[in-house]
């Protein structure tokens, strides 16, 4: 990949993704796959005035060894070092950047039950830090190609060719062309228009139908908002883009109102494993039945992680004719696949999808119907013939999606 | 490199280098150059019963960006996260493994003065932790080839060939043959015999002479011991090998007694830069004059880091015909070059070179003549015709080295 194009991508991530401010601290989490690109991002952060940048490298084969050999007790411990890390994050409101390059199958063969139990044990200790941080700091997830990931997508190519092709895909989907920052400004404007249209109607219900078997209704929050594109931090009011790429307009639905069956249209990568060909059936907002052709046990574990894991936290709308979907590539990666298709998420909802959410405590947001959970896992349900109808309080039906695409 | 030979090397490092015990915590510091080998070492640690292994990856180009952009104030800060890391080390007596693969020129172009000032500011905060840890935990430095390092040694080869050749060198020097652990047992036995010989004489002075211009006398400690090869942790009494490879027999000299000129016979890699063709002149134990053809300013900064930086902390004896020197390779890396040649070190001495050192506090060791400093930097003075004579209290002169090699 040409150096100049990578530099534009690094600049996009730092200026438009994180929007790094003078004096800020930045944490970058990444694999070992593209260290030269990571160095570009680090330097760009400092150029934008960052005071301290910390790179937390990880290597999936080593992560897998840890998960296999560590006892449940050791995995469950939140060490004083980790607590100090969380405290600094809360204190400095450090920006967080994930440069995802993980092998979608990288954790195959690990014990999901042990990992889930450890996460459950850690959650009560971590939650108070998370609650203090929620919506107050800039974060961004973007991607760089990893060798194993690229080979998974393009098994017919050599490793080097596959990585180069995946770079192309990532940069294309992320709008890294002549002037990526101008392209993102325009894109954010379009997403904001769609949100305004949806929010003006104040829909009570969304009704999904598709030939895949999806036949589903979900209740929306009366105080709820659709969001999309850039957002602002609470307090410091800094505009940032949490996902590069991002095509979605989304909201947090009303906890406890969801009925019917949703059929996934893409595999779900969870804990380094792929859950394939699955469906879920909801009653009164809760998953009451599920099926998966592959890794059903993992899906079951996922929805039973805690009380909130079987309720919905997000409904996201993306045209079937999205740039990502138009690549025709199945990325086996949520960042891309979720932005290629209408999706739902099980688990934690977004407090900032409530109007004037800054006036409510975390507990009040929960009471107002935003789901709470240790997990937040997207899964794709969009299809070529998907229909979504919005139903207002007075029974008016507005076609929002028709034949997989926006009808508005 | 053949997988089987690398597995033997990993086993040697974990069993013979660190000697990992059941339930221990291990910290591995390494570059991004040989992740597959790091994974082997991590797995071997767990197989030996480690409870938790933490890999701290680093990437020199990013380290360089940090050093260039961070303010002195930011570089000087010891964060609460670092303090928590030190506290855990003290609490758990975590084993520490460095897998060195650094580019010897990797930090060229950084500001040595800023780095030195930052290290000086950090030292008083870190020293109490270090003092508590001293001699109580297992540690090991070993090497793996990095691309830039290999190219520096073998500029005539392709990067891939150079890395392969450097693997060969590292494994040869580290005695990774049919049965490396048996080879190390035998090697440690030989080193122990040499130490016994030297310790039985209780030399008061070592006198160095060489055609390179070295003409130098250094006073030894009356309570001093020569050590070499494996050593034992204080308290837990675990036998480990701190350097792989290691050829040296060494002691900490008496602070304040050293006179004459020592001429370096190999370049010194310090803070990622090479100090070349240099000499130092001592009076009453202290450096009073110095010269270097390249990076003299860095050498000056080094000896003035603190009071102890201009005094000696180590005298090490290695035959000119050592396996490492016989490769004929200049490694530009202290671990190898120091084990290829007689050397001295400026800065911190070794308390465990005092007889019954476990009965003395850190302060008492200093009073007994062990030098204290924030630095400990080896530099090579061994040559083909080096002569070293040991002089006993009653004036007896024993030829220890003749024509560069052991005379005993």
Notable traits:
homodimer; 408 residues; alpha+beta; nine-stranded antiparallel β-sheet; five-stranded antiparallel β-sheet; 13 helices; 20 strands; 36% helix; 25% strand; globular
- Low-confidence segments of chain A, ≥5 residues, pLDDT <50? none
Tertiary shape of chain A: globular
Overall mean pLDDT of chain A = 95
Rg from alpha-carbon coordinates of chain A: 20 Å
Question: How many DSSP E strands of chain A?
Answer: 20
Mind summarizing the main beta sheet of chain A? 9 strands, antiparallel
Strand content of chain A: 15-25%
What is the end-to-end distance of chain A? 38 Å
Looking at the chains present, what oligomeric state does this protein adopt? homodimer
Structural class of chain A: alpha+beta
Give the helix level of chain A as a range of percent.
25-40%
* Contiguous helical run count of chain A: 13
Describe this structure in words.
Two copies of one chain form a homodimer. Chain A has helices at 3-18, 35-47, 60-69, 72-76, 80-92, 112-133, 147-153, 159-173, 180-201, 296-303, 323-326, 334-337, 362-367; strands at residues 25-30, 52-57, 95-100, 139-143, 205-209, 215-219, 227-228, 231-232, 239-240, 249-251, 258-263, 268-270, 273-283, 286-294, 312-317, 343-347, 376-380, 387-391, 397-402, 405-406. In chain A, strands 5, 6, 11, 12, 13, 14, 18, 19 and 20 form a nine-stranded antiparallel sheet that branches. Chain A has a five-stranded antiparallel sheet with strand order 7-10-15-16-17, covered by helices on one side. In chain A, strands 2-1-3-4 form a four-stranded parallel sheet, with helices on one face. In chain A, 36% of the residues lie in helices and 25% in strands. Chain A has 13 helices and 20 strands. Chain A is an alpha+beta fold. The first copy, chain A, is globular, with a radius of gyration of 20 Å. In chain A, α1 crosses α2 (35-47), α5 packs parallel to α6 (112-133) and α7 packs across α8. Chain A binds chain B through residues 32, 35-36, 38-39, 42-43, 46, 50-53, 55, 57-59, 61-62, 65-66, 69-71, 74, 79-81, 83-85, 87-88, and chain B through 32, 35-36, 38-39, 42-43, 46, 50-53, 55, 57-59, 61-62, 65-66, 69-71, 74, 79-81, 83-85, 87-88.
């Amino acid at each position: 990949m040409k150096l100049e194009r990578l530099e534009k991508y690094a600049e996009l991530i730092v200026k438009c993704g994180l929007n790094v401010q003078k004096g800020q601290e930045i944490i970058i989490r990444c694999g070992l796959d593209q260290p030269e690109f990571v160095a570009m991002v680090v330097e760009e952060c400092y150029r934008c005035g960052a005071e301290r940048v910390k790179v937390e490298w990880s290597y999936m084969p080593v992560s897998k060894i840890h998960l296999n050999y560590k006892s449940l007790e050791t995995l469950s411990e939140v060490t004083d070092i980790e607590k100090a890390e969380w405290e600094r994050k809360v204190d400095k409101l450090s920006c967080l950047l994930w440069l995802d390059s993980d092998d979608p199958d990288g954790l195959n063969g690990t014990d999901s039950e042990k990992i889930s139990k450890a996460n459950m044990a850690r959650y009560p200790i971590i939650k108070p830090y998370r609650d203090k941080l929620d919506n107050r700091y800039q974060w961004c997830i973007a991607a760089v190609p990893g060798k194993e990931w690229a080979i998974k997508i393009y098994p017919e190519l050599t490793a080097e060719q596959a990585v180069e092709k995946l770079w192309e895909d990532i940069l294309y989907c992320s709008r890294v062309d002549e002037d990526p920052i101008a392209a993102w400004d325009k894109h954010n404007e379009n997403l904001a228009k769609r949100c305004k249209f949806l929010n003006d109607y104040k829909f009570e219900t969304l009704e999904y139908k598709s030939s895949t078997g999806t036949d589903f209704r979900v209740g929306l929050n009366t105080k709820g908002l659709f969001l999309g594109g850039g957002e602002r931090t609470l307090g410091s009011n800094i505009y940032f883009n949490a996902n590069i790429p991002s095509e979605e307009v989304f909201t947090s639905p009303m906890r406890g109102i969801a009925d019917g069956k949703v059929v996934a249209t893409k595999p779900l990568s969870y804990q380094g494993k792929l859950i394939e060909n699955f469906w879920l059936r909801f009653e009164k907002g809760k998953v009451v039945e599920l099926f998966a052709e592959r890794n059903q046990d993992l899906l079951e574990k996922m929805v039973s992680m805690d009380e909130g894991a079987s309720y919905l936290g997000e409904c996201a709308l993306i045209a079937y004719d999205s740039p990502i979907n138009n690549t025709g590539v199945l990325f086996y990666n949520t960042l891309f696949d979720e932005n290629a298709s209408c999706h739902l998420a099980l688990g934690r909802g977004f407090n900032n999808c409530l109007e004037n959410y800054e006036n409510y405590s975390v507990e009040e947001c929960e009471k107002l119907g935003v789901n709470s959970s240790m997990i937040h896992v997207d899964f794709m349900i969009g299809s070529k013939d998907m229909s979504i109808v919005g139903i207002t309080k007075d029974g008016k039906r507005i076609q929002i999606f028709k034949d997989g695409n926006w009808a508005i």
